[in-house]
Amino acid sequence: MPSVRKKLAAVTAVAAGAALVLGAPGAGAAPKADQNLPKKLVKAVNPDKVQKHLIAFQRYADQNDGNRAAGTEGHNKSAEYVASKLEAAGFDVTRQEFEFVYDETVTETLTVGGEDIPVIRMAYSANSPEGGVTAPLIAIPEDETPGCEVSDYSADVEGKIAVIQRGACTFAEKQTAAAEAGAVGAIIYNNVDGALNGTLGDPEVGAIPTGGVTQEDGAKLVAAAGQEATLDLQGITEQRTTKNIIAETKTGRHDNVVMAGAHLDGVPDGPGINDNGSGSAALLTTALELGATPKVNNAVRFAWWSAEELGLVGSEYYVSQLSESEQFDIALYLN
Fold first, then answer.
1. pTM of the entire structure?
2. What is the C-alpha to C-alpha distance for residues 293 and 31, in angstroms, rounded to an integer?
3. Is the bond preceding 276 in cis, omega lying within 30 degrees of 0?
4. Residue 326 catalytic?
5. Is residue 33's pLDDT more than 90?
6. Do 283 and 302 touch, CB atoms closer than 8 A?
7. Full set of structural domains in the chain with CATH
8. Largest alpha-carbon pair distance within the chain?
9. Is pLDDT at 2 greater than 50 in this prediction?
10. 238-295: per-residue pLDDT in tens?
């Protein structure tokens, strides 16, 4: 079970990393931290304790359409679970609500020459017409900045579905350039092994239906250039409210804070236990074992972000709400 061992080792590393910085004295602070705290914390944070929180996250997903995506009841229950555990342990807890544009995939299909090619709709992609868009494929040449500029597209792209290699610029920039050149759809293929699950990062930029495929399937599409394909990408995009959970120790300097965070939300397609329930559970275990009043020089702040899967929305919102002084109060951040 090497994958399980790697996961458990990662959990231990999270605890160890947090413990090692706790004793770092802030500028001008008189040393008062428990010098044995790092060792105690690493020993206290164990897989069995982390597993209990993962079971809870899985239960909330099972009770709420199988997922814990931001803006859903599955995530709300997970967030309240984390907050209540921290409050019971004596932490100062903040539920930071914010609005965001929720995005959920309804349909994602790609057919070329009668063959179904697995495709993943990118978050915030524009929707295809009902039944999908049917047009010839056109392969965009691979270079150092493939499909990043309108000049990368020939006049022949007009009315076609552009097949573009990943890399050098954002998915949003690729589909924007393709749309400006006249493409009616964009398929971005990976430049490494594995599926390509991406986001355009901004609900305002979706110009044409945009999906991701593997490197292997990308090669098939490039070889099939000129053939007609049907790309059907449909999604729900709407305004919703979600929340970050922030907790801070009552001891330590609050003007020289050590901070650690993980995203609590998952994708709509599953319970999000590996990504990133595991990190959230490890972080929660670390916080609870540390306690609200540890003997530390620096206050420790923990964060469970929401809407990360839609483009780091929750963490970026948090930073945007900090004053310049509050930003300087954070000595370091462990993700």
1. 0.75
2. 16
3. yes
4. no
5. no
6. yes
7. 2-91+249-334 (3.40.630.10), 103-238 (3.50.30.30)
8. 72
9. no
10. 999 999 999 999 999 999 999 999 999 999 889 999 999 999 999 999 999 999 999 9
